[in-house]
Amino acid sequence: MSDLSSSSPAAEPLTVMGAGLVGSLLSLYLAQRGHPVRLFERRPDPRRTGQLEGRSINLALSDRGWRALEGVGVADAIRQVGIPMYGRTMHDVHGQLTYQPYGQAGQAIYSVNRGHLNRTLLDLAEAHSQVQVSFGQQCLHLDLKGQQLQLLDTASGREHTESYTRLFGTDGAFSAVRGAMQKTDRYDYSQHYLEYGYKELTIEAGPGGSWLLEQNSLHIWPRGQFMMIALPNLDGSFNCTLFFPFEGPVSFAALQTPAQVQEFFNREFADALPLMPHLTKEFFEHPTGSLVTIRCFPWKYDDDVLLLGDASHAIVPFYGQGMNAGFEDCTVLNQLLDQHGDTDWPTIFSEFQAQRKPNADAMADLAVYNFVEMRDRVADPRFLLQKKIEAKISSLYPGRWKPLYAQVTFSHTPYAEAWAAGQRQDAIMARLMPHIQTEADFDTPEVQERVRQEMEQVAGA
Amino acid sequence: MSDLSSSSPAAEPLTVMGAGLVGSLLSLYLAQRGHPVRLFERRPDPRRTGQLEGRSINLALSDRGWRALEGVGVADAIRQVGIPMYGRTMHDVHGQLTYQPYGQAGQAIYSVNRGHLNRTLLDLAEAHSQVQVSFGQQCLHLDLKGQQLQLLDTASGREHTESYTRLFGTDGAFSAVRGAMQKTDRYDYSQHYLEYGYKELTIEAGPGGSWLLEQNSLHIWPRGQFMMIALPNLDGSFNCTLFFPFEGPVSFAALQTPAQVQEFFNREFADALPLMPHLTKEFFEHPTGSLVTIRCFPWKYDDDVLLLGDASHAIVPFYGQGMNAGFEDCTVLNQLLDQHGDTDWPTIFSEFQAQRKPNADAMADLAVYNFVEMRDRVADPRFLLQKKIEAKISSLYPGRWKPLYAQVTFSHTPYAEAWAAGQRQDAIMARLMPHIQTEADFDTPEVQERVRQEMEQVAGA
Question: Where is the FAD-binding domain (chains A, B) (predicted)?
Fold first, then answer.
């Protein structure tokens, strides 16, 4: 046991393993409640090295993330360097554009630079007198029964052992903390990969740092079995991501030469290609990322260890909710601390996992669902018509029909509730759409009557 | 690379990690084809220590297992020490018995002692001039790229490194070989535990080694949310297994004292209790086992490593197919070697996993399905009536309706096909049974006509 642990509960230090986005935000929350926090991170300080291994450059911050950032008073500062995206702009193979708003007027998701956000949170954490951050601390072994972390100081090569009374595992999808828990009896765990990989590419800025595509949009090139997306950066460039099968006739495996890549982009993304002068260099130099969904349970070990963020629920990126879900973990934990007090960790850990696990599972499903929507369905005029009809129904029945995207993105409705409502709505639309060929059809008495009947079955929200 | 690997393909040694049931049988198959085999086992030689950690004492051998044993000429010897079980005997709370045959006259599954079977296979493997068996060899590390196994000789404490060109991982549900593969990119893996544990108990032999229950039956005490089963041993005793929730009002957690156990067995298994004189001692001394389903993919690494048996598809024990499925892996691998020759390992490994993975997934589902059937449905008179009606349909349409249990147990139909047919049959019975209240109803013109119509939809087998 640590010699610090014998002091009063309020002064008992909490240990956080992993100083990524969730770990640094969590440390701030805990410190602001008066807890001393020791924050360990495997990698060197990213503010010195600038390296962020294998992670996307842009993130889409939405309401759940903002609320969590507001809780530590940093939302306004981040908003200054975020770019609002009010909707999706779809690019077809001929360069024709279609636009679909994400929500109501003024509602947006924000393109934010991951590195900037992480550095800002680390600066805040380190500036807090209660937080002690140590970088380059690799977890070699976690003794769950003995409550000890065996860490390697990567700079000096020295190993050291740290005792803990409460350990928070925020060390990401390949969490060492979870790794130790996985070896305990009756631990449910799954890692499932999509057959798609991703490649990060760049659309260059125009003259004087201008944006060569609409900057307040998330751009999608939906192509059925694959897609490219682009998110705006402050410097006028866009960060593009190609989501593409690993194997098959149209796949990473099939694009082996610069000429093949050039030809493929010319055929599929002809309007973007002239804006990507470094395409082939980037294509072959950047790694091909893989896309994993990780589920596990329990998220706690006894009353000593709790997993948060990607460590317990890594998801694919297609709903832009990975970070937002991890940040919401911090909000929920903070609420539970408000509710049960800062010493009743057994109750807090139990309630946390009971409350969050179904929502994390729903979000994992939603993320895969949105991949199909983005790469395939948004290119279908019938789907876009359906979305317009849904918006009309939502206006007519504002309390009873909240669009799924808005519930996930612009609300704090638990993900599991949003997902259940979304599935009910999909079933309703499957019954209505055969009777609707144009937007105007919505106003016919027949369709109005069908909508009225359907909505009678839907409970008020 | 091993210095042996540069010799001719036929003399190239094959490495098998894990000398359990599947590993020792596989080694025999490979050796009989002329391959030198090095077989490593983590545990000490079970023929010397007698220890078999955490595994059930009895196994139910059925047709798939027998076929695999016949392939190495050992089936007849094993059958001499197996006890045929021709059906299930259900015991209700009042001690009333119901009987349900497993198949047609003469068809049986065989209660076989795991230790005896493993020792027999090890004796045969060791007697084969091409097989070299090493016990007490713990896999510390597997270097997949370098094709090297780092082993610890547990007797001497010395570490040694073994190169391989082909490695077969038959090291069970917690496979070290699979453990290394899990860390490679895009490796799909899941471990899922039932909320039930199991406890092994004993019904003692009667005077002179007689059986105190019908010896040619598998006995079930189905109790809805839990059950006990018993399989006969040669010495007149029965090996009982209680499958029971870990937590809850009726659970392992709720039975904390000998008096509570005695009272519980007296209430639920009153006819068995007098036959279990060591019940409370066994209950508290024997470990409580957990029940895991493990799925993963791929089963191969490049063309060098292949997983078989529980290492790639551990399942829960309720269909008695875990060992049979692992033995069938050996049969299928042997067939692929016949088909493609003994050197085309890339094709053989690819075809093996493509062919076996869907069948292993189906068997995992079937095993959970049969748990519900055994602990709950077999106690329902309507279910038993349904099984009788199904037998009648099967007699009327022998090519088109093969009972699911028989397809799994008494045939070599791929598990996935059997499972699909079983689901179709369940759907048909759900439509028919509302029209059938007694066995005699089957012969009414109305029911006969319904059956005829249903069977028109079923393709001939």
Answer: 16-365
